[in-house]
Amino acid sequence: MDDVTINILLLGDEKVGKTTFLSRISGGGNGLEGHAPITLLRDIDQPFIFEIRNRKRAYRFEFYDTSCPGDWHLLEPDLVLICYDISRRLSLINMLRVWIKQVRSTFQAGDHLPIIVLGLKRDLRSETDPNGVIYPQEGYKVSQEMRVDKYVECSAVTGELLKLAFEEICKTAAKTVTAEGGQSEGGCVIL
User: Fold this and answer.
1) Of 13, 34, 19, 135, nearest to 84 (Cα)?
2) What pTM, to 2 d.p., does this model score?
3) pLDDT one-digit tens code per residue, 140-179
4) How far apart are the C-alpha atoms of 106 and 179, rounded to whole Å?
């Protein structure tokens, strides 16, 4: 049985943690929980390829970061992850102001393209942030306003919720090649 290739595009402001997230998951399933060493991936090595196998099929997930050498507008993703830094309110605001608009205007799949909001740097959530704490409920609310399919958050550094987030991304990606597609049924789901 041949691998099914699925293109996954990570979008978001600079320094929100996309490369650290990809670097951490590149360590494999054993490195998804707790603290683990992180060796940062190099942008020139894109796409970052992960081969996943479940009982039914083998998948080849090709992750592209927005800092990739080519123009991300030319890609044809099967799944988009819009990322923001939980400790930086501006990155949350830019998801709504910039990134969702870019996705909707750039890709022809438009309304049929599954989108997940991925909150990164969960370990840096601070009660003393002068701009106010971004709680999961607020990230979820913004995700609903954007009309995306799912909202997940994690910390690549501490491993908090990392395994759950990666599993959810993989499940959604795998569904993109089925008849039902990767979109949720009406509304954003929080995990």
Assistant:
1) 13
2) 0.87
3) 999 999 999 999 999 999 999 999 999 999 899 988 887 6
4) 24
